[in-house]
Amino acid sequence: MGTNREEVIDLPKTNVMKYFLEDGPWVCLRPSGTEPKIKVYFGIHGETMEEAELKLKQVMNAFMENINEMINSAK
Question: Where in this chain does the record put each Alpha-D-phosphohexomutase C-terminal domain (predicted)?
Fold first, then answer.
């Protein structure tokens, strides 16, 4: 899903993690300000709405597979 490349960037301190994926998509995670949960945002680009929706489904599925693997390995 990613390149495993890490880069230090000089930005203001924040409670957000943003991951840039291969071919342009990104995933952003942040804590909710009012509830005990993590919010996840996805950024996708496609030539058409249909292409963007398909890419979004693929990225979301891959992301959730990775999250589930991490949860299961922590048990």
Answer: 14-53
Query: How many domains does the chain contain in total?
Result: 1
What is the domain range of residue 44?
A: 17-73
Residues 6+ apart with CB under 8 A from 24: 44, 45
What span, in angstroms and rounded, lies between the C-alpha atoms of 21 and 4?
Answer: 10
Task: Establish how many alpha carbons lie within 13 A of residue 70's alpha carbon, considering only the half-sphere containing its beta carbon.
Answer: 6
Structure tokens at 12: 């203001």
Tell me if 57 is assigned to some domain: yes
Please give the model's pTM, rounded to 2 decimal places.
0.73
- Rg over alpha carbons for the chain, rounded to the nearest Å, is 14
pLDDT in tens, 38-72: 999 999 999 999 999 999 999 999 999 999 999 99
Tokens 């390995």 belong to: 73
